[in-house]
Specification:
The structure is a single chain. The protein is built from seven helices and nine strands. The chain is of the alpha/beta class. The chain has a five-stranded mixed barrel, surrounded by four helices. Helix 2 packs parallel to helix 5 and helix 3 packs across helix 7. It is globular and about 45 Å long.
Length: 233
């Protein structure tokens, strides 16, 4: 049945869903890579599509920006539409000088300044991690294709325009890059017994000031899309 945010019925959405933050990137992935595409969602402009990739049914759904938005969409997909795997495909800012625009980052674990995990009332600090099965497959594919990538800890931040810049502190702890959605995704997957992975493309070099254009962010970072789709097979 449809939810307040996703206008689909059970069976409309595949077991594996790619989730970019930008709904226009979701449309780009569907138009570029999928066959026999059906659009199942347009509520709030957060497009969702299901189609075939190399004979396997795959869906792609925008998540919006930030942990609260990702929290809503990933929870509904996991909990109401029987989705088993969600692979986030997004952009990130690089802390590490070894990462440059277009490089891939696989989020093995997610550090965060978000309060999302407080709802679980855990007597300590939980460390949200990716599905090893999905991560291993994605890393193997990136290696085979000889893409430039790194695997490690990423930061999920609630704040885009920070009043105080703490990036140097995260960098000292080996955090590779920063984005805004993965903590909620990994925590929902852990709580609901599902699988999740984040694959990011560096769009900003925070160490040098270089930035990708808005169009590049939306349509040009196809390596991570291919890796995610191949991981779904």
């Amino acid at each position: 049945m449809a939810t307040p945010h996703i206008g689909a019925e059970k069976g409309d959405i595949a077991k594996t869903v790619l989730m970019p933050g930008d709904p226009l990137r979701a449309k780009f992935i569907a138009d570029t890579f999928l066959e026999d595409v059906v659009q199942y969602n347009s509520i709030r402009g957060m497009y969702g599509f299901t189609g075939d990739y190399k004979g396997k049914r795959v869906s792609v759904q925008g998540s919006g920006m930030g942990a609260p938005s990702m929290g809503i969409y990933s929870y509904e997909l996991f909990n109401f539409f029987d989705v088993e795997n969600i692979i986030r495909v997004g952009t990130a800012g690089a802390f590490s000088e070894e990462l440059h625009i277009g490089d891939l980052v696989m989020g093995q674990g997610v550090s965060s300044n978000s309060n999302y995990a407080s709802q679980y009332e855990i007597p300590g600090i939980i460390a949200p991690i990716a599905s090893y099965e999905l991560l291993e497959r994605a890393v193997s594919l990136a290696r085979e294709k000889e893409y430039s990538y790194k695997v490690g800890n990423i930061l999920c931040s609630d704040i885009f325009y920070e009043d105080i810049d703490f990036s140097h502190k995260w960098k000292k702890m080996g955090i590779l890059a920063v984005e805004m959605e993965s903590a909620a995704l990994y925590l929902n997957a852990a709580r609901l017994g599902k699988k999740a992975l984040t694959i990011l493309t560096i769009s900003d070099e925070l160490h040098s000031g270089k930035k990708a254009t808005a169009e590049e962010r939306q349509t040009s970072f196809t390596n991570m899309m291919e890796i995610a789709l191949e991981t779904a097979l």
